[in-house]
Here is the input.
Amino acid sequence: MSIEQPNPAWQLSADHWQGAYDSIPVMMGVIPFGITYGVVGLAVGLTPSETLLMSLLVFAGAAQFVSATMIGMGTVDFSLIVFTTLLINLRHLLMGASLTPYVTRLPLARQALLAFGMVDETYAITMSRIQKHGYSEHYQLGTNSAFYLIWILSTLTGIVLGAYIPDPLNWGLDFAMPATFLAMLMPRLVNKTSITVCLVAAVIAALSALYLPGKWYIIIACLSASLAGGLLEGRDSRAV
Here is the structure.
């Protein structure tokens, strides 16, 4: 486990910009969904200001889609909306836990800022950087900031173009996000352990999605993959 030591100010700035730069290819898959959210927000009855404010304060695509839809359906119980979005984003607990060894040394306010900006894509980019060069809070902040900015701009685009784009996903743009995650996953399948863990997660996720409601299949697949990975790596270390 590698944790970078404090660097001079210019190096910290370089880490920040490097994180933003490394995010550019992945951000292309997020733009259609930001635009779609802006369109959906208006379609379900939110005002342009409310639609944009949710992106500014929530910054969680799936949670925003579900919340906007529930509000549009007339749900007035705020606790129900919070609980539903919590279930959808339970995977963030697992992602955050994996970063705990790196961020606990940081001030609490900085931890909160990094946690707010952590989404699936920024987490994947940060973890890839950790494997290659160690952890840098400024790198993580750079990728977080880049995705936050593009999400806000995409939402604004959706709000402006909402009257002209009733449903962007009819163009097949919904495949952009799965393709993005596949592109991030494939280079990491470098040995039998990683391939086995990937297959376990895929099978468990598919079976769970068939028989369980909501987004529980995500959590079950993550836990199953983590368990499989721990057991396989433990076996490999004992064999050495």
Notes: Residues 6-11 have pLDDT under 50 and may be disordered. The two ends are 19 Å apart (CA to CA). The chain is about 75% helix and 0% strand.
